[in-house]
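Aim 2, interim progress. The first record below pairs a target sequence with its structure tokens.
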Amino acid sequence: MPNRIDRRGILTGASALALSAGLLNKSPMAQGATLQADQSAGYVDSHVHVWPKLTEKYPLDSKYTPADVVPAAFPPEEIMQLGQKEGVQRVVLIQMSFFGFDNSFMLDCISKWPKVFRGVAIIDHDAPLVPDKMFALRKLGVRGYRLYANAKNAASWDVSPGIDAMFKTAAETQQAICLLSDPEVLPVIDTMAAKYPSTRIVIDH
């Protein structure tokens, strides 16, 4: 398999989400702090979830209730403040499951702090025009797409036009397919990696 992933490959691939995103110098990490011109300075946190206190602007996905949201919020300002203390200057945001396919909050964070954040979105691979969606989101700072690679979901990947579209388009856009994977799905991932050798695959869990 051309892109079989070992532990080093996983870490390298995850970091590449941010490093390949064009996160340039003078990045405001917290309270207007300035990123040094040398990109080698500081760390990249390649996997962070943020979410706001519940408002009508960012409604929960129908699978969740307010009781599921614990803690009540983890705002981007908090991760930036924590990161500043530890030398973390760039962050990859992972779409929070509370919001399903609505990536609005994550995209708003990227828009507000474009030199700090890039994102991994969750999209509906069964919806029409998946490639168009992926190209559009790339322009908004999305550098990968999360898939829940459990046995039930992955069982239909080999016959899913939407999954094929995602893996194929990700190679064209240089975005990653990021998998929250169960161990028993590794053979399916192996098959997809062989089928799409130019697609970057990150196993983040």
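The second target in this work package is listed in the same format:
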Amino acid sequence: MQILNYLKSIVERLPGPLPNFNLIHVVLMLILLENGVVGRKRLSSLINLGEGSVRSLIRRLREAGLIDTSKEGCYLTPKGREKVKDLRRFLKGPIEIELSELVQDKVYASLVRGVPLKKLRVLEVRDEAVRAGGKGAIILVCLQGKLIFPETSELLARYHPRDELRIMEAFKPSEGDIIIVGLGSSPHTSKLSAIGAALKALEFVE
């Protein structure tokens, strides 16, 4: 997948110390800048990276021509907006959703498009959510207007009808879309797991 490979190249190891940020932080920063200028301290808080690491990430993204800075903060360049647009063709979210049945908490979830169900490796996607810092992920697929668990083909609505309604309202998924609910010990780790698992799922896009 071209956009994913491009973003991965930004965090490939260069001469010198290994950076403290990874692909998830790159994507999260670009998403945060979608709606306008954000200050460095605010980015540090939202991404949960130290200011030194955020400065390094900003420098790397500036070198790639994706962002620029002003007195007010960081913002996307035209190239950056184009890359985010490319990513958004396949990725929606992460969106905060309050669930009451699958889990009783506010969690973050992402939607991934373009992955054939026969190629989706649910265990690998779930493992990536853990590697991202979360506790795991709940994977759902939209088929015939319903959300199902791909491993068992059981309907989410059979057990958790209210949560299905909330997820459907939040994402309005199309046929074959994959929804990943990130599980974590905090909203931040839920968001990291939702993004990390989604990026793993994007590797299976045809």
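The radius of gyration is 17 Å. This observation will shape the mutagenesis plan for the next reporting period.
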